[in-house]
Amino acid sequence: MKYPNITPGVFLERPNRFIARVQVHGAAETVHVKNTGRCKELLVPGAEVWLTAPDSTGRKTKYDLVAVRKGSGMLFNIDSQAPNAAVKEWLMPQGFDEIIPEYTFGDSRVDFYMRKGDARYLLEVKGCTLEIGGVGYFPDAPTERGVKHLHELIKAKKEGYHAALAFVIQTEGVYEVRPNLQTHPAFGAALAAAESAGVQILHLPCAVTPDRLEIRSDLRLP
């Protein structure tokens, strides 16, 4: 997926999880942060960031903060909506008869329902922005919703769906995502249970530029 416009800036501070103060064109600007995770190792004062201006009506801020360069030099897309957009592009050439986003299953909304002939698929997407020593970790903050989604995928597998969880790695040079047991051990336990139940776990590396997130993987759903 590609943003139609992009503006560089310098991160100043994050007063709360929804907004940040960024220096843009020499002036301090309040911007929307499109990620409610902690991102504390990324959003540090002085970090290079990139913003997009959606130009939609009724906004309180002109810009959305969508990318940041880590101190190590790695560029991260931190837009929590970008992984789903990238996955939809990745799914399109895979020959599905139907691709339905935001599909209601049980008590949850699963990111994608797909159908190929009589085969039914459910796919949940998680964006990974936490990197430690060249390995991705998820989540960077506790996610009861993520645990619930894994239990729904286990249920779907038992009901005959092909069920999968995709980790979209929002930086380059990282090819594996592990559960962040220190932050949320319950997610790690649910992930292990899902794998044991036959839920497919996908690790999807990406090409990342300030204005683009694109999955670069030969993996395909069966």
Poorly predicted sequence stretches spanning 5 or more consecutive residues: none
User: What is the architecture of the largest domain at the second tier of CATH?
Assistant: 3-Layer(aba) Sandwich
What's the Cα radius of gyration? 18 Å
Care to count the β-strands? 16
Give the class from helix and strand content and strand pairing: alpha+beta
CATH class of the largest domain: Alpha Beta
Mean pLDDT figure? 96
Strand order of the largest sheet: 1-2-3-5-4
Using the coordinates shown, work out and report the CATH topology of the largest domain.
Answer: Trna Endonuclease, Chain: A, domain 1
**Helix/strand order, N-terminal first:** EEEEEEHEEEEEHEEHEEE
Number of helices: 3
Largest sheet: 5 strands, mixed, barrel
Portion of residues in beta strands equals 35-45%
Describe the structure in your own words.
The structure is a single chain. Strands 1-2-3-5-4 form a 5-stranded mixed beta barrel. It is globular, with a radius of gyration of 18 Å. The protein has helices at 82-91, 144-158, 185-196, and strands at residues 7-13, 19-24, 27-33, 48-52, 64-69, 75-77, 98-105, 108-116, 119-128, 130-132, 135-138, 162-169, 177-179, 200-204, 206-209, 212-215. The chain folds into 2 domains: 7-77, Beta Barrel (OB fold (Dihydrolipoamide Acetyltransferase, E2P)); 82-215, Trna Endonuclease, Chain: A, domain 1 (3-Layer(aba) Sandwich), CATH 3.40.1350.60. The protein is of the alpha+beta class and 222 residues long. It contains 3 helices and 16 strands. The protein is 17% helix and 41% strand.
